[in-house]
């Protein structure tokens, strides 16, 4: 056990993340919630188990990170709380209640936006006894292991992110897009190496699905380089695998992690998760941070 920001914590894996112990989010003061956010800023992810939360509790908690972020696709948002998005394979009255197999594939949320989301929060309401794990890759640890010449090379690169490219090429959950959605989500350029605004660590800020090209490199060479980097950062030594229990709240920092969901036996088990986002800021590269 380690005390961080006045809270009892245990590492999720050596050097990454923190399980915060003996905190009841529904009954905590704003000061305690702010301490949880501070641990998040230092550790890249936080886990709190055995929570019993109503939607208002979740909104209050995510708001301590920043203003809640809305959702590009609103089909599965909670009517009374549109900041909460449902992930589920359940069907009620012949209609799905949530997005199924959403988030499978290594990525960071909303990387196609000028200001990607700061963090993603998941709350486990119904959890399969096997499968449906969430994996988090520590992009700072991966950057730190690079040789100096490779760091300098990656520091200089930028990536072209595209919502349209993502929607047209995603393997699971491919959806039709509209002119309005495309207009609201124009292509953006972000640095490959991102400097964290709170702790100044550098992260190999790659993603799959949204990246159309590495600026200044022809395809397929550029995308092959990106694939090699993703393979590097998602090695087991950089990855935390979260096995869900009902009542788990897991929050990860999209500024310094990649994540992916995993599949489960959706004919045998049901799953229901609540997902929330907090607004972020424009990624800053090494040259801009200097």
Automatic annotation (TrEMBL):
<keyword id="KW-0560">Oxidoreductase</keyword>
<feature type="domain" description="TauD/TfdA-like">
    <location>
        <begin position="9"/>
        <end position="277"/>
    </location>
</feature>
<keyword id="KW-0479">Metal-binding</keyword>
<dbReference type="GO" id="GO:0051213">
    <property type="term" value="F:dioxygenase activity"/>
</dbReference>
<comment type="similarity">
    <text>Belongs to the TfdA dioxygenase family.</text>
</comment>
<protein>
    <submittedName>
        <fullName>TauD/TfdA family dioxygenase</fullName>
    </submittedName>
</protein>
<dbReference type="InterPro" id="IPR003819">
    <property type="entry name" value="TauD/TfdA-like"/>
</dbReference>
<dbReference type="InterPro" id="IPR051323">
    <property type="entry name" value="AtsK-like"/>
</dbReference>
<keyword id="KW-0223">Dioxygenase</keyword>
<dbReference type="Pfam" id="PF02668">
    <property type="entry name" value="TauD"/>
</dbReference>
<keyword id="KW-0408">Iron</keyword>
<dbReference type="InterPro" id="IPR042098">
    <property type="entry name" value="TauD-like_sf"/>
</dbReference>
